[in-house]
Structure formats: structure tokens, C-alpha cells
């Protein structure tokens, strides 16, 4: 796929960034707004906690499963049609949810949303790689990260405001005019490049096995099937996952145009980047349980627990935007080191409960800054520069997959560690000591990255 640079500051540049940022914001917003909607869904459809968990699982699984196929299709057929299809699917899922006459239609709508959402962010990142010159990519990817972070943070209060003034249906109906605007502007602004010449057959076997592999992973980590059926099934899904992984690798090695080129993992820098992305996802997901320390150790009321994380939220936005602006100057390696160092300090300090609530609030600030830095675009930049040009979309899709898997693992691991460490705040303190140790490990592994990406070296030459 050829690459044509769009100069910064031009009308074409502004239109393109608007299309990408609004799409990413819409997708991230609906990832975050579901938590305040759950009580309303429980009341309207008369469902229990086990059933309501399907709303989140359907989105996670469909998003994970669609990311690599849609990213690969973007490499094959061009970014514009895949981005537009992803936005359309997301809007369709929103409409299905808003008009759902039953709970299972809500689950179907979330699954459709997830399929569309799985293609939005990696395709947007690949468009930036294709359309912008190297010196502009870091800032643009940083702004993508900041957009995602702001949407994730603003989602719950915005959802609460809509539910107070209107009702839960409007949270999803609001996506329709936003998607329509993105589609209208995207038809004019998105580049239309696509590979030339005949294309090999689509890797259907790889797609099917990857979906089964990710389904087994989600079922093992969340134990959703165990809860729904009242049986111990996670050992079987774990065995399925262990068997499917080598099968997937075997199939991909023999595909004419594989869904996930295994050869990319022979690149040491790229393999290390994906492992660090897994760690970044773990660090990002670990934020969720910080409110448990606030309630258990400092007596903060559950309804007010979210407010204690506001300093962390502000720091996350600052970290993400600042890292994007500094990426070309400092290099991805330096920023990732700084991000994991901040996460190590912040989570380690959060585990110490002897300094009162104000000490806890201060401890969450480096956590927010660190999350903002590691998701700002530095890891995506390395994936862009190290991956073959024909697989840029796939490389960005893998960033999303590893981030999501890390987030899933964090939820399961912290809960298990907290239960093992004892009741109340003591258990969570021990869990966050382990998290801090893992972030130190990620910091040490980051030293294996090159000091400068090839693109930055070219700029300096």
C-alpha cells in the first residue's frame, strides 16, 4: 500500500484528524458508559448479575475477535472502506441496543458494537501511519491516546447526566448522528489507497481459529461460563486455549497471506513491543481496583469512590498529551521507560495505606501519568516503524489485542491476589505490591528497545 503524506495544518489534515478523533472518541465512550447503564438494564429487563455480565463479555469478545480480521482487511482493501464499515457497525449496534425489546437484543447490539469497535482504533492508527509524515505521527498518535483516555474518563459522568435528564436509550441513540457525521466527512477526508494487483485468498481458517482461541481466553479469565452454567468449566477452556494456540501458529505459517504473520514475531523489537503492550494493558486495567483501597482503607463511601480518582484522571490526560508532543524529541524508548517507572512508583505507593487519604490521592497521580504515557502512542509508533508496510494495520490490531488481554488479566489477577492476601484493604495492598513489581519488570524489559526508531533516525540524519 503506497503512502502519501498530508502536510500538517492543511484543511485536508484537519478533516482527517477530525474523522479519526471523533470515531475513536465515540468508540471509547461506549466502552466506558456501560457501567452506569447496568443498573437500569437490570431493572428494565429483570436480569441477575450473571446475565448482566454478558453485556460486557459480548463487547469484549466481539471486539477482540474482530480486531485482527478488520485490521488485515484494511491492509488488503484499504483503510477507508474498513474504517467506514467499522463506524457503520458501531452505529448499527447502538441502534439495536436503543430499540431492544429484550435483554438478548441488548447483548446482540453490544456484540455488533464490539465488532465495529474492534476495527476503529487500529484502522485510525494505520491511517496516521500511511497519511502523515514521520515527524507528525507521534503527536497524532499521542492525541489518539489522549482522546481514548478522555472518553474513558468522561463516559460515566456523561452517562449519568443523560440518564438523569432523559433515559438510558439516549446514551446509545446519541451515537447515530455522530456516526453519520463521521461517515459523511470520512468519505471526503480518508485516503483511498489500496494495494495493487491480485490478492491471495482471505485466511478464513486463521480467522475461525483466532476467534475460538480468544473465546477460550475470555472464558478462562472471566469464568463467565462457570457462572452461567454453575459448573467448573475453566480448566477445559484453558486446555482448549493451550491446544488452539499452536494450531493457530501452524495454520498461519502455511497461509498465503496470513491473518497474523508469524514472521513479524521474529523481529525482536516488535515481539518485545507486544509483550510491553501486554504489560501496559495490565497497568491500565489495574486502575479499576484502586477505588477498593479508597473504600476499605480510608472509609470513602462507595458512591463517592470514583471522585477520589479525579487527580489520577487529570494526570492521565496530561501524561498522554505531553508524551505525544515529546515522542519525536525523546524517542519511544525513553517515554516507555518513564511510563513504567511512574506506574511502579504509583502502584507501590498506593499499596502503602499508612499515609492517609491525601497520601493515597498523591500516590494515584503518578499512576495516572504513567497510564497516559504508556498508552500515548509510543508503543504504536514502534509497531508502525518495525512492521512491514503491507502489515501496518495488522501490527496496530495486535497492539489492541495485547492491550485488551493485559486488561483482562489484570482484573482476574488482582481479584485473586486480593482474596489470597487477606480480607479488606490488606489483600488489595498485597495485590498492588505485586502489580508494582510487574511494572518494574516491564521497566527493565523496556531497556531492550532501541534508543531511537528508524523514522526518528532518518529525521536526525
In short:
By secondary structure, the protein is mainly alpha-helical.
Q: Any overview of this molecule?
A:
With about 450 residues, the chain is mostly helical. It has 20 helices and no strands. It folds into three domains: about 5-190, MFS general substrate transporter like domains (Growth Hormone, Chain: A); about 205-255; about 265-460, Up-down Bundle (Growth Hormone, Chain: A). Helix 6 (about 135-165) runs antiparallel to helix 14 (about 310-330), helix 12 (about 270-285) packs antiparallel against helix 19 and helix 15 packs antiparallel against helix 16. Residues about 455-460 have low confidence and may be disordered.
Please work out how many helical segments DSSP would assign. Answer: 20
Which segments are poorly predicted (pLDDT under 50) over 5 or more consecutive residues?
A: 454-461
Number of strands: 0
Mean pLDDT across residues: 83
Global shape:
globular
Elements, N to C (H/E) = HHHHHHHHHHHHHHHHHHHH
What is the strand content?
under 5%
- Oligomeric description of these chains: single chain
- State the end-to-end CA separation: 26 Å
List the helices and strands and how they pair.
Elements: H1 11-32, H2 34-45, H3 49-77, H4 79-98, H5 103-131, H6 134-165, H7 169-173, H8 175-189, H9 204-222, H10 224-229, H11 234-254, H12 268-285, H13 290-298, H14 310-330, H15 332-350, H16 356-374, H17 378-386, H18 392-421, H19 425-446, H20 454-460
Helix pairs in contact: 1-5, 1-6, 1-8, 2-3, 2-6, 3-4, 3-5, 3-9, 3-18, 4-5, 4-8, 5-6, 5-18, 6-14, 9-11, 12-17, 12-18, 12-19, 13-19, 14-15, 14-16, 15-16, 15-17, 15-19, 17-18, 18-19
Subcellular location: Membrane
Main location: membrane
Transmembrane segments: 20-41, 53-71, 83-105, 111-129, 141-162, 168-187, 207-225, 231-251, 272-299, 305-323, 330-349, 355-376, 397-418, 430-449
